[in-house]
Amino acid sequence: xxxxxxxxxxxxxxxxxxxxxxxxxxxxxxCHPSETATRLMVRLLAFIDNAHAIGxxxxxxxxxxxxxxxxxxxxxxxxxxRILSWIELGEPSLKRIKQGLxxxxxxxxxxxxxxxxxxxxxxxESDVRALPRVTVWSPPAEPLAALTTLVDRNLSLxxxxxxxxxxxxxxxxxVALEFERWT
Length: 183
Description:
Helices cover 26% and strands 39% of the residues. By secondary structure, it is α/β, with parallel strands linked by helices. The protein has one domain (6-181): Restriction endonuclease-like alpha-beta roll domain (Restriction endonuclease-like alpha-beta roll fold, Roll), CATH 3.10.640.10. The strands form two sheets. The protein has a six-stranded mixed β-sheet with strand order 3-4-5-6-7-11. A five-stranded mixed β-sheet has the order 2-1-8-9-10. A hairpin with a 4-residue loop joins strand 1 and strand 2 (21-31). The relative contact order is 0.17.
C-alpha cells in the first residue's frame, strides 16, 4: 500500500518592509512521504520570500511539486497564464533549470541541504552563472535548522523582512534569517 501525503495547514503573515508588501496567506500544503520537514520549511520560506510579487494580476502558488516533472515547486503566474517565476527547491539539474528558463521569465532556486548544496553549487556554478535570469538563494544552515523545529501540522508564522533580513516567529520562538545570494 502506497503512503499518502501528509497535509499541513499554514497561516503566513508576511510584512515585507523592504518591498512594501503586507499580506496574510492561508495555505494547505500536501507533503510527499519522502519530503522532509526541512524541505517543507524551505517551500514556505520561498513562498514568504516571493509573496511581494502577488497582486491583482499575479498568483503565487505551490504546485504538485515532487509529484510532477512538468512543474516547479512554486510558480508565480500572470493573469494571462505566463509564468513569471519558476521556483525550484533543492539542487536541480542544469537541464531542469534550463527547462524553467524556457517556460518562465526567471528561475529562482532555494537549496535546502547545506552540505550537498555547496557541492552542487561548486559543480554547476559556472554553468548557472552563464544563464540569464537565474538566481540562487541559499538559506544558512543554523537558522534553517532552527526554523525546521517549528514545523507543525497547523503552523502559524509571522514573517517580517527589513534590510534583507527575515525575522520569523511562531509566537514562541523567533529566528532571524538572511538568504545568501549565490548568483
